[in-house]
Fold this protein.
Amino acid sequence: MVISPDLCDLPVVIRQGVKCFELMAEPVKQELLPGIWIQGWGYNGSIPGPTIQVFPGDYVSIRVYNALPEATAIHWHGMNVPNDMDDAPDINPSLLIKPGEYFDYQFQIVNPPGTHMYHTHFNVAKQEMMGLAGGFIILDPDGQTADRDYFIMLQEFAVKGLPMGVLKPGCYEVNPLSDDLQFFTMNGRCFPATAPLPVCYGEKVRIRLANPAMKTHPIHLHGHQFKVIAADGNELNACSQLVKNTIPVASGETWDIEFMAHNPGIWPFHCHIPHHTANNMTQQAGGMFTVVCYQTD
């Protein structure tokens, strides 16, 4: 299975051969750093929402409840689902989920194994920047090809009432329409509160990156070169697998990278845009930053 550090997987119940999931779109109080919280919108109590994991060929039913103060909808980003199961309410108003209501998305997984997302597709300028997104992983039925397999969602937030250059404990409202972004997250947390990515020497490590938000994030790994093995949920042929140490992840993209753990130590893995590795423009390293940490036992 794929591990989403700092996040849960969405629980599944099988009924008559169908994998049944439940998502609740709701206001969420998310801790970015110790003592610093945002009042955003997420799924099942977290920003980003829990990761969904399925296999090719699975029949799924995903009941989405709307506990938000306004209507919402979900787009299964990168998924080849029937038209009446892919919410774009401005195109098909019948798919809108009003407050207090729910909708059952039902479809078969026809895509091959790969990394995808789910996210709101209504009032997106507000709702996506409030945090409404999560990971959707189609697993390989033949088993994992890597010893470690991680999923990381990249997001960014502007908040109200916290001046630039200040870190003051408190709970802050998200300002979704502002481009003055102060906090940049991996799976809903900022460094040094991000979970490290443990590896052991000699392991093959896969990291899946997804970006549902506004900015492009060039993600850089210290001390290693990696292969780019998949783009937007599609495996790349061996002859197309570039060897790099930095991969730009633009809005709407997913990229899978893979490297061999052959250089022991604690290695930064972060966005290379300087403002994106600071917490509200304070001095110490922060933001969209974690570490690949070699285990000694």
User: Anything to note?
Assistant: The chain has one helix and 22 strands. The domain at 150-294 is CATH 2.60.40.420 (Immunoglobulin-like). The first helix runs from residue 124 to 130.
